[in-house]
Write a structure and sequence with these properties.
359 residues, four-stranded antiparallel sheet, TIM Barrel, alpha/beta
Length: 359
């Protein structure tokens, strides 16, 4: 496998471990991935859920937990550590500031258009010693909006871009009718983003890595997208099947026990479709059974909590802890292909072997 270079950051292998909230990718998984030469990522979404005061002071709990997890990861690895921060978070700006203050290597940001943020990242720092910024996009149009805004307002551009297709897990940047439409497949939208990026590479005289994401499961998949012009890939689902993943064993077993027909698209309270593993909790919601819900947080800007049959933050927190009767598991389209729990080192070596065979 080739390496992945983002500015002055150099990963030995071209894999970014996707950020998985709520509490699925924390310091344990991120540091293990970084130690294998890939890029480990902590998800900041509801990261304070295990803090004792989360229910009453979710902002303070999130801030405290994010600092803890970044510091723990840095103690466990000298590799590259990033933080995934969703634009839709109501405490998005606070998470950005903390990640920069703690000196993370890069910030990956999706679930909205990350526009007005460079000053948080660049203040008093040179390009070489600053935190890198990588937006997640699902179209060439979104890429153009972000890069044009940055160029116009800050005379600079993001350091890389992740193109996420509709086979990803969790919340999706597509309408329901687009998810299975071949015109929106990753292979189709990827070239459009590359075309936009080439314009900005020429204008700014710098390399901007384009990273493919959403449904990438094997080393052969990695090889395929590198042949299509990707500098690397982002993978999340397959990393759930590792001992170091920060989720409960019950969460991981939901992947192992799942069948292809169990992977379903749901309507999330945040106003976006999401991909999850069907269980009794989701069946009850589909059948009109409301789960007890109240919202002390408004943790996501777009959440329609008043009309929602359940609190998604609470449901995902319960799933992370293994209480699947009171929650559900987000997953990528290939989750049913996870059939065992392995060490991160073993998974990385398997991906390398699969890549070599494909090439």
């Amino acid at each position: 496998m080739p390496g992945l270079k983002i500015g002055d950051l150099e990963a030995q292998i071209p894999i970014i471990q996707g950020g998985m909230g709520v509490g699925i990718s924390l310091s344990g998984l991120a540091s293990a991935v970084a130690n294998e030469g890939a890029i480990g990522v902590i998800s900041s979404a509801a990261i304070g859920m295990l803090e004792p005061d989360f229910a009453k002071n979710f902002r303070e709990a999130n801030a405290r937990a994010l600092r803890k997890e970044i510091r723990k990861a840095k103690e466990m690895t000298d590799g590259i550590i990033g933080v995934n921060i969703m634009v839709a978070l109501s405490d998005y700006d606070e998470h950005l500031a903390i990640a920069v203050d703690e000196g993370v290597d890069l910030i990956i940001s999706g679930a909205g258009l990350p526009l007005k943020i460079p000053e948080r990242i660049l203040e008093g720092k040179t390009e070489k010693n600053r935190t890198k910024f990588v937006p997640i996009v699902s179209s060439g149009k979104a890429t153009e909006i972000i890069f044009n805004y940055w160029a116009k307002h800050y005379n600079l551009i993001p350091d890389a871009v992740v193109v996420e297709g509709p086979m990803a897990g969790g919340h999706l940047g597509f309408k329901k009718n687009q998810i299975d439409d071949p015109n929106y497949a990753l292979e189709k939208i990827f070239p459009d983003v590359v075309a936009v990026i080439k314009i900005y590479e020429q204008r700014y005289g710098k390399n901007i890595p384009v990273i493919a994401a959403g449904g990438i499961f094997t080393g052969a998949d990695i090889y395929k997208f590198i042949q299509l012009g990707a500098s690397g890939v982002q993978m999340a689902t397959r990393f759930v099947g590792t001992y170091e993943c920060d989720a409960s064993m019950e969460f991981k077993e939901a992947y192992i026990k799942s069948k292809k027909e169990d992977i379903v698209i749901i309507d999330s309270p945040v106003g976006m479709p999401g991909r999850a593993i069907r269980n009794k909790f989701l069946d009850d919601v589909s059948n009109g059974i409301r789960k007890p819900t109240k919202c002390p947080w408004k943790c996501l800007k777009t959440c329609e909590y008043i009309n929602s049959p359940y609190c998604i933050a609470l449901a995902l927190t319960n799933a992370k802890k293994g209480y699947l009767q009171d929650g559900f598991v987000f997953a990528g389209a290939n989750a049913y292909r996870v059939n065992e729990i392995v060490l991160v080192k073993t998974l990385i070596n398997t991906l390398k072997t699969e890549y070599d065979i494909a090439s």
